[in-house]
Every structure is written in structure tokens, then in C-alpha cells.
Amino acid sequence: MVTRNINNFNLLRLVAAYSVLYYHSFFLYLNAGKCVTFGDVSLGALAVYVFFSISGFLIFKSWIADPNVFRYLCRRLLRILPALFIVVVLSLVVLGPLVGTLSVVDYYKDAETWTYLKNVLLYPVYHLPGVFASNHYPSAVNGSLWSLPVEFFMYLILILIGVVFRQKLKWGLVFALCIFVFAYFFSVDTSGVFIFYGVDLKQIAPNGIFFIIGAIIAAFKLEKSLTLPGSFFILALLMFTSHGVLFQVLTWIAIPYLSLAFALQSSWLSVKIKDMGDYSYGVYIYAFPVQQTTVYFFPGLPFFSHVIIDILITTFLAVVSWHFIEKNALKYKPLSNHPL
Question: What are the transmembrane regions (predicted)?
């Protein structure tokens, strides 16, 4: 096990962010083929589950270190909103007129243009009028933003558990897990889409389960039990149950276990990544519009040429976002004894 300051969290988040980029490539590019899956879990879903598992673990530790609702929310909002505000405004002001079918005047007159700003309030809006209308995956500006309100909802759930259960947080988390598991199986058997605040409510349970299990690992201090032999055992179980209910239940255990078992170790690369900064959020929120833009201007590029170009451009924007926006915003976090 390692010290809290030298670990693989930044590295794993970065790998997950690039995995989402790669997964989206199979939908956004022409003649991309079929993306790799792991049983019933797609690469994109796996990456998001890793994000939620890590988030549940770390955010719970942050709450325990300073269970003050105001300071807790300030820290979470300062991590999410500044960079999100920039990518939303750049998409609206720069990207929209550049790659849209409307004239600049008509674009800015269109009321739909300005509804895109709802994204700053974590209300997902995916379209700008006329933008990417002729792309292979038409009209979607930033398909990655759906997960942000789900993530923030889990932050609020953690507050609720913390306030209601207080000294019995562990069992509050277990109770919440039971509710989310019930909601998951209920939603699987329910047809239709249920939208609230721009979010498909069916997305909350399958992602929230990983957040809660990550928090449970932290609450019960189970990270000390995350071993390499245990990782191999869990992988072996997954190999023999690649589909169905048993596989789904095993992923709830396996993904948080494997993610945190790796994240809590250190390596020479983790030290280098930590010294550079946490670029994963920037990669996550910039990748989709970058991919759509390269498809717009270079629709005939080979698949892997697209991927490489998009990784380079997205990484550049993520680096700029971290050093000029995100890192500076985090300086305003309320003081506490916890580094998150």
C-alpha cells in the first residue's frame, strides 16, 4: 500500500478518460467497425464505472475528513464547474458558428443556441442549431456531459446519508446500496425513458451502485484487503460468467475492487503523472467535441489516424484546462485537513 499522495489514481482516471474517447470513436467515425466489449459491459461503460468507483472512494473520504455540507459542495463544484463553463462557452461561441449550417446572425438569434448554456448548471443539452448536422453521428456536440449530473447527484446522496445516518455511515451506505440495486433491477424490467432535469433516470442506478460500493470500501476500510491474488480470482470468475445477472453482480464487486487495487499502488509512471497534473477531467469533457470537429473537417481519414489526431488535440486542451483553469479554481477550495 502507498501513501495518500503517491498512487495511481491520476493514472487510472487518465486511462479511463482516453478509453471513453476510444469508445466514442466507434460511433463517431465512418467505417469504424465494432468496439471491444467485456461480456455485457462496453469499453465506455467500463471506463465510466471506474470513474464512479474511484469517485465514491475518494469523495467519501473527503466527507469523513470534513463533514460540512457547505464546504463539501464548494469543493465539488470548484472541481466540476470552472472547466465545464469554459468548454460549454467555447462550444457555443467558437465551435457553433465554425461548423454549423446557419449564418452567424441566425445562429446567435436562435433561442436553441442559448439553451446550451444549461450545461453549466449540469442540465445536459447535446445540440446546437445546425452544428455537426452532416456528421456521421449528427448534431451531438458533447455526448459525454450526461454523466456529470449523475455524478453530482451521487454527491448529494452522500450528503443525505451523512446527515441522516451520522454516526452509522457504514450502514447508511449499505442501506443505500440495497435501494440502488433494487432500483437497477426494477429499471431493467421497465420499458420507456424517464427524463428529469435532462437526465435519463435509468442511468442513475447502474452508475450509482459503483459510487456507493467505492464509498463502502472506504467506510469499512476494505482497501487493506485489495490484493493481487484477489484480483486474479475475481478476473477468473468474470471469465466464466460473461453474461447475465451473475455477471452483472460480479461487475459491481470486480470493477471497484480492481480499480482501487490498482489505484492504491504506486509506480514510476504514477509519480510522473502526479507531477504533471490531473488531466483526466479535461480529456473527458473535451474529447467528444474534438472528435466531432475532426470528423467534420476530415471525414475520410482512416480510423486510427482520427484516433491519434483526436488524442493529441484533446490532450493539449486538457493540459491547458488543468494549468490555467482547474488548478487555479482549486486554490479557492475551503480549507480542511483533507487534500481533495
Answer: 12-30, 42-60, 80-99, 145-165, 172-197, 203-220, 232-255, 303-325
